[in-house]
Amino acid sequence: MGDPTAATTSIKTLAVDIGGSGIKVMILDEQGNPLTERERVETPNPATPDAVIHAIMGLSEGKEFDRVSVGFPGVVRKGVTETAVNLHPDWIGFDLATALIHPLNRPVRVANDADIQGLGAVAGEGVELVITLGTGIGAALFLNGKLVPNLELGHHPFRKGETYEEQLGRAALDSVGKKRWNNRLERAIDLLERIYNYDVLYLGGGNTKKIDFVLPPNVKIAPNVTGLLGGIALWRD
Ligand code: BGC
Asked: How would residue 154 be classed by pLDDT, with cut points 50, 70 and 90?
């Protein structure tokens, strides 16, 4: 038996995921369950702060929500975006949270996209590592559900003088093809397991659909929607 007033009194969160190729939104209820379908537009090119904010405004139009969670593909500290390798240099030092509060007229919280995906995916037990395979390579590390924010593993050396992102990001997949990309991913998983000794590794992001080998038992696929569902966790305090 549900509370008949719950649907109207529940706080609604607009979850936004800014990606290198698409910007996605969805409305979540107070428990973090989706209230709408996921909507997506192409990330503008060039992906300047103004252009991306404009796209978010367009996606938010006509929707009912009380607060906003944003996942951003770079280091985020106190609402300020500090890196943006796959967007535009104007994001460096940009106060995204403040820039959105005024036009949206709602409280806004911003975090790294992989951190949000992880918050939506992990079980909250032991050491859980999340790696996202998209335009860039994102990473998030958790101990008993507690996040170590802004783990920029994607830009660390992996092999042949290249970083994980240079070897496994979208550009690499496009240039070397699925077979070699899968071989690289297998090697990366093996290396990450030996470094982090995680209990579970979650793989997220659009390119997980290109994986064509059997994953080890402690490696799971995090559905794409977790990149938005995790947005609710930014309000858990
Ligand atoms: C960024 C990370 C981000 C990842 C996935 C990387 O290039 O440095 O912060 O999480 O891409 O979007």
From this structure: very high
The answer to whether residue 1 sits within a structural domain is no
Q: For the chain, how many structural domains are there in total?
A: 2
Together in a domain, 22 and 88: yes
Alpha-helical (H) ranges within the chain are 6-9, 49-60, 96-104, 113-121, 164-168, 170-196, 226-229
Ligand 1 atom closest to the Cα of residue 86 is 7
Predicted TM-score of the model (pTM): 0.95
pLDDT computed for residue 3 by the predictor = 54
**pLDDT exceeds cutoff 80 at 5:** no
**Phi, psi (degrees; rounded to nearest 5) at 144:** 50, 40
* CATH number of domain containing 145: 3.30.420.40
Ligand 1 contacts CB of residue 81 (under 6 A): no
Pocket test for ligand 1, best of 113, 135, 166 (most atoms within 8 A of CB): 113
Phi, psi of 83 (to 5 degrees): -140, 160
Please tell me whether residues 77 and 159 are part of one structural domain. Answer: no
Q: What is the domain range of residue 160?
A: 116-222
